[in-house]
Design brief:
Length: 451
């Protein structure tokens, strides 16, 4: 038997809901806001705590990929924890009890955190971009790539964007224990945006340590608009270039299949005689999982290989590779960082397990699964995953991510000097393969050690 449905909300509670969908890695973010009247009686507070607990418990029961979540008797878990929530003296005590229940799953991406933190993650200033990208390097927001702005240089630190003080915002985000470094990066990036055509005031510190104030007109994002399912249209771009005789592929999301797949195939064709190939997935939050299989098929000539398997409630998806007739089989390097998520992790981790690619950079986001963040009746935010992914090496990427073969970190000093240390390391490795070619032999995949 299931527990009775929670009582309806009091009539003096007004609920408003807004939904924001974002493909961060194949990661789906849904936020619902609840506005509560100023006058709340103690019995109503208790009821909200109970309703919130029931929402969490029921969501895990219905949405978890296992019928027995975490191998537990979830009905017995309800019987154990609900009385504790009923007797809780305040919101904090009830929250801690519900968190203890989730901890019994011993699985990542099941968390409850303060509503203010959820709002910070979801806040969007607009679609306009200042023409550069940033990363958090040693606790500072640093410009790492400039693609459409002649006023700013890589290596500059951003102190403020509009009314947002970057250091203050970063401290606030880090205070939320459930907020991953990946989500922190996205939240800070969103504060640098705004409506297209408007002007935003930025304060930087340049390479000489001087403060530089600039009013930057925000422009359209690069790439073409592409939609998928119920998601809002996304700007998708793809770049292919050569560095000496090494190919370099970059794209921002695994979306816009009709454009990206032919572009990827053409890049492979154009790189047939390259010494090696570098695929830069830094900043790529993922997208359509099937595209990882399609692209990987251009990078192997071996049959019966797969990147891994995704397990959902009532369904299993195997990421099987279909080798192309014109495949690139030379040295392959993949660049990743903490903003490489979802399909990017499946692609990089799968090819790493198959011993087909060497991974450079820093640990990935560990957000390989579709996850949801929803508002609870008491105003807290609840995050939960709806599938599990196991790589071909037997490793769960969710919450753990991909560990690079060669850890290389971007530094402000190298960026100011005009160098991308991660790209340089990958290019140097490819040159060693050119001098001393090492043919990759088929071998049995060994499970990666658990952290």
């Amino acid at each position: 038997m299931h527990p009775p449905d929670p009582p309806c909300q009091p009539k003096d509670v007004h609920n408003a809901q807004r939904t924001r969908s974002a493909l961060n890695l194949g990661v789906l973010l849904v936020l619902a806001t609840t506005t509560i009247s100023a006058q709340t009686a103690p019995d109503e507070s208790q009821q909200k705590r109970i309703n919130s607990f029931e929402t969490v418990w029921t969501t895990v029961r219905d949405k978890h990929w296992d019928v027995r979540p975490g191998g537990l008797d979830w009905q017995a878990i309800h019987a154990e924890y609900r009385p504790l929530v009923v007797r809780a003296k305040n919101d904090n005590e009830a929250l801690e009890i519900t968190r203890q229940m989730l901890a019994r799953l011993k699985q990542t991406h099941f968390a409850i955190f303060a509503p203010g933190i959820a709002d910070e993650i979801a806040n969007d200033e607009g679609d306009g971009t200042p023409g550069f990208e940033t990363r958090i390097l040693n606790g500072h927001v640093i410009v790492t790539d400039v693609f459409a702005n002649s006023q700013v240089r890589p290596g500059w630190e951003i102190l403020a964007a509009g009314n947002w003080d970057m250091a203050t915002l970063l401290d606030k985000l880090r205070a939320g224990s459930a907020i991953t470094p990946y989500a922190q990066e996205r939240a800070l990036e969103s504060r640098q945006t705004g409506p297209v055509g408007t002007t935003k005031h930025f304060t930087f510190v340049n390479g000489a340590g001087e403060h530089v104030a600039l009013d930057i007109q925000l422009q359209n994002q690069r790439g073409n608009l592409a939609g998928f399912g119920n998601l809002p249209p996304q700007h998708i771009w793809f770049e292919f270039s050569k560095r000496a005789n090494t190919g370099l592929i970059r794209f921002n999301e695994f979306l816009d299949l009709p454009r990206l797949m032919p572009a990827f195939g053409q890049a492979i064709h154009d790189c047939a005689s390259c010494d090696g190939l570098i695929i830069d997935l830094r900043g790529n939050p993922g997208g359509i999982g099937g595209m990882a299989m399609g692209m990987a098929g251009f990078l192997t000539d071996r049959e019966e290989q797969k990147l891994g398997t995704m397990y959902m409630r009532g369904a299993t998806l195997k990421f099987v590779l279909n080798p192309r007739a014109e495949a690139f089989t030379g040295p392959l390097a993949i660049l990743v960082d903490g903003t490489s998520a979802s399909t990017s992790e499946i692609f990089a981790g799968g090819l790493q397990d198959l011993h087909r690619a060497r991974i450079f950079g820093t640990h990935t986001a560990g957000a390989a699964l579709p996850s949801v963040i929803t508002r609870l009746p008491n105003g807290d935010a609840f995050q939960y995953a709806v599938a599990n992914y196991i790589s071909e090496g037997g490793q769960a990427l969710e919450g753990q991510g991909v560990t690079p073969d060669v850890e290389v970190r971007l530094t402000r000093e190298s960026l100011l000097a005009g160098h991308d240390a991660v790209l340089d390391a990958a290019a140097a490795w490819i040159q060693t393969q050119k001098i001393q070619p090492q043919k990759i032999q088929p071998q049995k995949i060994q499970p990666r050690s658990q952290p």
